[in-house]
Amino acid sequence: MTENARAAAVSADGTVIAFDAWGEGEPLVIIDGATAYPAINPINAELGGLLDGAFRTYAYDRRGRGDSTDTAPYAIEREIEDIAALIEVAGAPATVFGWSSGAVLALDAAAAGLKIKRLVLFEPPFVVDDSRPPLPADYVERLDAAVAAGRPGDAAAIFMTDAAGAAPEDLAGIRESEFWPVLEAVAPTIAYDGRIMGTTMSGNPLPRDRWAAVTVPTLVMHGTNTFPAMIPAARALAELLPTATLRQVEGEQHSAPPAVLAAELRAFAR
């Protein structure tokens, strides 16, 4: 396998987007979900190794995370430009694989007309029914206020309870975990994913017009043992997109082993 190459692309607004690349083959860009980036998500590196020969895999630090810089003010369009910069480096058209809220950003990128060959989306965290409480209407505003007041831990706590579904009584233990400093470090970016999700976690049907321009082949996946809301969310998206295929990943939750994902990606590419 070609050795991992840590490098950077420059987005349209001058933001430096750091990325890792593995393997040889057609280009594949991975978009992480809220709080994640390659240094703390080893699945991306393992997946890149397993896909060598079929894909050259690119996984990047979304703006404001890891080694990437950030430029205010935030807009979803800026993150789409970041993906465009990665695709320019990787080579177009690229397959784009999005995890969780990264899957929603991938959809937005395809709808914006980026040079995307196919989409692979793992558990976009929509809330389309009453299987879990909807995201509070003031979620993004509360995140912004906590960060502006210099309280990144409060922003992380809002994310863990309101978005990730952790029980408030479990927060003390989570705050003592080795993951907590990572959450605090990326806390200013949590509201970015809140803006990307928009109204899609309200318990209502998905908007029919937001991704109407998406015409590329799309694989939508969910684990069979995942959070209850994820299964109807994946089904709703697959029903919404005429070019979508829905795949259940047996026994998995809000992630899946690299070997399982690699097999699905290779099969979908064929």
TrEMBL record:
Taxonomy, superkingdom = Bacteria
Sequence ranges assigned to domain AB hydrolase-1 in this UniProt record: 45-256
Q: Does the UniProt entry include the keyword Hydrolase? A: yes
**A GO term, aspect molecular function:** triacylglycerol lipase activity
Q: Has keyword Hydrolase?
A: yes
Q: Which SUPFAM superfamilies match?
A: alpha/beta-Hydrolases (SSF53474)
Which GO BP terms, alphabetically? Answer: glycerolipid catabolic process
Q: Which UniProt keywords apply?
A: Hydrolase
Query: Which InterPro entries does UniProt cross-reference here?
Result: AB_hydrolase, AB_hydrolase_1, AB_hydrolase_fold
Q: What is the protein's name according to its record? A: Alpha/beta hydrolase
The scientific name of the source species is: Phytohabitans flavus
Taxonomic lineage from the root: Bacteria, Bacillati, Actinomycetota, Actinomycetes, Micromonosporales
